[in-house]
Specification:
alpha/beta; single chain; 635 residues; binds magnesium ion; 2 domains; Rossmann fold; binds adenosine-5'-triphosphate; six-stranded mixed β-sheet
Length: 635
């Protein structure tokens, strides 16, 4: 076991950046809508369901009235059992029931009142079930809307915004915090039911015996005060749970993703210990929440029991009759589940408040112009706004620095001529992929401009612009689905013949046919058994299928062996897959099909012109194309 420093668990007191809490006191206490109160994005999602609050409240009033009535008619029942007269001080309607039934014999009266009580309880149960079904429905719908909005937020996000944030935090919010937030919706509705029911029952208790109610109200206020203090502590503990969960998610991703390095570099013990530490942190945080919650229930029960004793004592001193006292105590007992429902909901909300804030934070990430422009879908009507196909693309003094301050490119100027294959070359970290990101409008220049013909690229929505581009990169960005679906990702309407045609051009057809189900092999299962080069060929076939005006190959064949790569480049050129093309490679042979070249060093262009004349190209390692001559692009 290697020596390691014990990690400090994330703590609610370490509040930084976005998780810092500015408690919007009263609104925050009543409605757990994060830091932005009723104007925040969660409030906007919940607003269409606002009707459910009053609906649940009305059902709560009906339930409590029925509950009160079923208890109220206990008084004549008890009075009949003890003597034949209804005690003094009993409210009018109850006295009336006793008088109506007075003409019948005692047993009939008891049966009639008993049947009345049962009917009221059945009705109450039906209304309660309707209220619970309504709450479940609303909770489900709001949860659905929250999850869809979160997914939408990521899909509409600009690349720059994506780079600025921690993707593990996004994962944690979508996979865990959104579920907790959904639960809060159910608790808010429980709170509404709890408040309404307690109010109605309180009114009935006042009506029955206001002096006893005064004692109960004083006790209720004392219990509420204790709960308030405990809840504040739970709120802080909830933040610790969220933070430790995020730490655990990060460690989990390392354990799953870094499968080979962990073994090759003998880091199994280290990763096991780090994961164990994070898991311990989650356990400690959850135990702290459980301890605080466990303390609350016995404390409340103790206070409620003490209150009952005081009520009995007062009833004796005030000379309150036994039927009235019994009805009062039964009603008070029936009110208890509602009080418990209210406090459970309050405590649940308090412990989930930090999850709610995380969801609200993610939903509230500001839309920037690039992200919102990307929301378009490249509709046919918009295509008219695009510059004509085959226009030259000019970088004019373009500068871009990454959010973390690392210099991407600075003062870059060059032109991509239509119908020409251009090689973009330079050392690692020189800025080649940054230029590709700019060209694809995944990011916008901070200075200078990119012009497509006469039109500035930043006036064209990314979605429209992307209809003109196909990109194959070094990273293997395969998606969930079959091989055919992965290739057809570029154009869903493509026929099987077209898919197989581009797969042949990308040198992928032969190995695909050897897969267990050929083109229908699901890649979610097979991806691990494909080599890096095979995956790149699928990525290349996908880019070719798009048949776009501008094809960008960013080290798209870096994992393909030299001979196969030469064959692929020859097929691409011969079958007119090259129009305007930008090829990035560290291998000289890959570039042999290009006429022009641009050399970039430390984010600046240092050479440009016909490829064969560039010093950097001449000194590059790698086989030359076997024909020895550049291949002419198609079209
Ligand atoms: N997502 C990012 N966040 C911060 N800095 C980045 C990011 N991507 C690239 N950079 C920085 O920008 C500079 C240019 O990187 P870029 O990826 O464009 O290089 P490259 O020429 O494509 O390198 P390679 O040949 O290794 O792919 C480097 O200094 C790099 O550290
Ligand atoms: Mg790169």
């Amino acid at each position: 076991m290697q020596a390691r420093a014990a990690i400090a668990c994330p703590n609610s007191r370490h509040r930084t950046g976005d998780t810092a809490i500015r408690v919007n006191k009263l609104a925050g206490w009543l409605l757990p809508l994060g830091t932005q109160g009723t104007r925040g994005p969660l409030a906007r999602i919940a607003r269409p369901y606002a009707w459910s609050g009053p609906a649940v409240a009305v059902l709560g009033v009906l339930t409590s009235l029925l509950e009160g009535a079923s208890v109220g008619i206990l008084i004549p029942l008890l009075a009949l059992l003890m003597s034949d007269s209804v005690p003094a001080g009993v409210p009018g309607p109850i006295r009336a029931i006793a008088q109506v039934t007075a003409s019948y014999d005692v047993e009939t009266r008891i049966l009639a009142i008993g049947a009345g009580i049962l009917a009221l309880i059945v009705l109450k149960g039906m209304i309660q079930a309707a209220s619970a079904a309504l709450a479940t429905h609303v909770e489900g719908r709001v949860g659905d809307d929250i999850r869809k909005s979160l997914a939408d937020r990521v899909l509409a996000m600009s690349y720059r915004t994506y780079l600025e944030h921690d993707s593990v935090r996004f994962l944690q919010i979508v996979s865990s915090d959104s579920w907790h937030t959904t639960k809060v919706v159910g608790w808010v509705l429980s709170m509404v039911t709890g408040i309404v029911s307690l109010t109605v029952m309180g009114a009935l208790l006042v009506w029955l015996e206001w002096r006893l109610f005064a004692i109960v109200a004083a006790g209720g206020i004392a219990i509420g005060g204790v709960l308030f203090v405990l809840e504040r502590r739970l709120g802080h503990l909830g933040i610790a749970v969220t933070q430790t969960n995020r730490l655990l998610a990060e460690r989990m991703i390392t354990v799953v993703n870094a499968f080979r390095p962990i073994r090759i570099f003998g880091q199994r013990d280290r990763e096991q210990a780090r994961f164990g530490d994070a898991s311990d942190c989650v356990r400690h945080a959850m135990e702290a929440v459980a301890r605080s919650t466990a303390l609350i229930i016995p404390s409340v029960e103790l206070m409620v029991s003490a209150m009952f004793v005081v009520v009995l004592l007062a009833a004796h001193r005030l000379g309150i009759s036994l039927p009235v006292l019994t009805a009062f105590l039964v009603l008070l007992t029936r009110a208890q589940p509602h009080a418990r429902e209210l406090s459970t909901a309050r405590l649940g909300i308090a412990s989930m408040r930090s999850a709610v804030r995380e969801v609200e934070w993610m939903l509230g990430i500001a839309d920037d112009s690039l992200g919102s422009a990307g929301a378009g879908t490249g509709r046919a009507a918009d295509a008219a706004n695009l510059p004509p196909e085959g226009a030259p693309i000019r970088f004019d003094d373009v500068t871009y620095a990454y959010p973390n301050g690392s210099a991407g490119v600075g003062g870059v100027s060059f032109t991509l001529q239509p119908g020409v294959a251009t090689a973009l070359i330079g050392r690692s970290g020189a800025g080649k992929s940054t230029l590709v990101n700019l060209l694809c409008r995944l990011i916008d220049p901070q200075q200078g401009a990119i012009l497509v013909g006469e039109r500035r690229l930043d006036t064209i929505s990314p979605a429209q612009w992307h209809t003109r581009i196909a990109l194959a990169g070094q990273d293997i960005e395969l998606v969930d689905g079959t091989v055919a679906e992965n290739i057809a990702y570029a154009r869903a309407s493509a026929s099987q013949e077209e898919i197989e045609g581009v797969a042949r051009a990308a040198g992928a057809d032969a190995f695909i046919r050897q897969l267990p189900q050929g083109y229908a092999t699901p890649l979610s299962l097979e991806a691990l058994s494909l080599s890096g080069g095979q995956r790149q060929r699928i990525g290349l076939a996908r880019a070719l299928l798009k048949n776009a005006d501008l094809l960008i190959l960013d080290e798209a064949t870096s994992a393909v062996d030299g001979l196969s790569e030469q064959e692929i480049m020859r097929l691409l050129a011969e079958h007119r897959h090259f129009r305007t093309v930008l090829v990035i490679s560290h291998r000289r042979s890959t570039l042999a099909a290009c006429q022009n070249g641009i050399v970039i060093e430390d984010g600046r262009i240092v050479e440009a012109g016909p490829l064969a004349g560039l010093d950097y190209y001449r000194t590059m390692a790698g086989d030359t194309h076997r024909t020895g001559e550049p291949v002419k692009p198609g079209k």
